[in-house]
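Supplementary Text 2. Reproducibility record for the structural model of the 246-residue chain.

All settings were left at their defaults, and a single model was retained for analysis rather than an ensemble. We include the record here because the model underlies the residue-level annotations in Supplementary Table 4.
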Amino acid sequence: MANSASGDSVVDRVVRVIAAFPEGVTTLQLAEVAERASLPLSTAHRLVRQLSDHGLLDLGPGGTVRLGLRLWELVNRNSPTLALRQAAMPFMEDIQQVLNQNVNLAVLEGWEALFVERLSRRGSVTNRAQVAGRMPVHISSAGLALMAHQPRELQAEYLRHFEDPSGKVTSDVVRHLLAESARQGYAQLAGVVDPDTWGIAVPVMNGKRRAVAALGVVVPLAEVRLQALVPALQTAARGISRRLDE
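Retained model, structure tokens:
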């Protein structure tokens, strides 16, 4: 693949163009795409036009750019999370009906929890977990539940590279949280993302006793009932695991 004068390939540039859209933003001006992708305007325009020809982007009047429907189609058709979401959805719906709380499903992607599904309860606390959104492991109960049930080598690498941008959390604190989550079989964080919420998550395990996903709820601090929440989540997680093994 041909390289630019800066040494990056066409694939590198295409990925930067597609990744230029921040979470929650569906439309950008072409100049914004170029700036966010660190590309000359002429290069961004050429790539956007070519991607638009394939339906991966939509180039509209006045230089507006949107993610194309074809991109969504391809991602969802063959996404490795599709089977997970299909297996989990009936159990997530049961959890929401029984507990009447926000419910999330996440997988581990690098050092972050990537949320692949969520169900929100009308009138409940704000659910910051967005589908296709990410949260660092150490501020997410789902992230802790996932990392706490990974191989020791992966945990050690994560802790070795750990850095909290706020400077408030150390690797020793995270090590303790992971150990506690592994011992208890669930992770919990109170008032970290929002001061009035409590996140609780359990791992969805595969046959090798490794977490392939995390099932969690986000509840108001005043409504926390661990004795009811955790067993319900663990039962649902085991059901998802069985579905995945079928």
